[in-house]
Specification:
- The structure is a single chain.
- The protein has 2 domains: 94 residues, Phosphorylase Kinase, domain 1 (2-Layer Sandwich); 69 residues.
- Helix content is 27%, strand content 33%.
- The protein is globular.
């Protein structure tokens, strides 16, 4: 466990998957700290930059970054509670406004490259190089790497050893809609092949 040096009254709280979650007193107020001993270099700095970027449109209040280090991230404490119907509507409108603010690309908008940090989903490192359209980004930077990792770990099939994954654009239904096919060809123990194909619209 690593906490800010000035943190007092630490108390474990629920939440998180790969990190420990703590409620502490820090800088005269309450704070939330996430920490784990094997965090990747710059991982928490990248998350802090992402939170600050999401706050830029001013559409929703995001937890303020109090302190960031290689082995912890301290954020403004958000008191647990339930949203009213009005609050739920405000949240929805705020999320829509953040999406409408857009990004220069799909993938890393720049601070990942600036910090020299790879993207993570949980404990997995995934490529996050920019792409001009969502369909290409989601296929090449998310589905295909995840399929390869799952195959290497034997999660797609107990005898799987490798996966050859290809993404093919099948056509355009409208200016902003594309069909994608993700095909996973996985050798099994009898040298046969299992083909799993998923097609979806974007």
């Amino acid at each position: 466990m690593s906490l800010p040096a000035a943190a007092t009254d630490p108390r474990r709280v629920g939440g998180g998957d790969i990190n420990e979650a703590w409620h502490v007193r820090l800088s005269g107020g309450e704070a939330f700290v996430k920490t784990r001993p094997d965090a990747g270099p710059g991982e928490y700095a990248l998350e802090a930059a992402g939170l600050e970027w999401l706050a830029e449109p001013g559409a929703l209040r995001t937890p303020g970054v109090i302190e960031v280090a290689e082995d912890y991230l301290a954020l403004e404490w958000v008191e647990p509670g339930r949203l009213s119907a009005v609050g739920a509507e405000q949240l929805g409108r705020g999320l829509a406004a953040i999406h409408a603010a857009g990004s220069p690309c799909f993938g890393d908008p720049g601070f990942g490259a600036r910090l020299g940090v790879e993207a993570r989903i949980g404990s997995l490192r995934l490529p996050n190089e920019p792409s001009e359209d969502w369909a290409s980004f989601y296929a090449q930077r998310r589905l295909l790497p995840l399929a390869r990792i799952a195959s290497e770990r034997g999660a797609l099939r107990s005898a799987a050893r490798s996966a050859c994954c290809t993404a093919q654009f099948l056509g355009t239904a409208s200016k902003n809609t594309k069909m994608i096919t993700i095909s996973n060809t996985i050798p099994n123990s009898s040298n046969a092949q299992m083909m799993c194909t998923t097609t979806f619209a974007t």
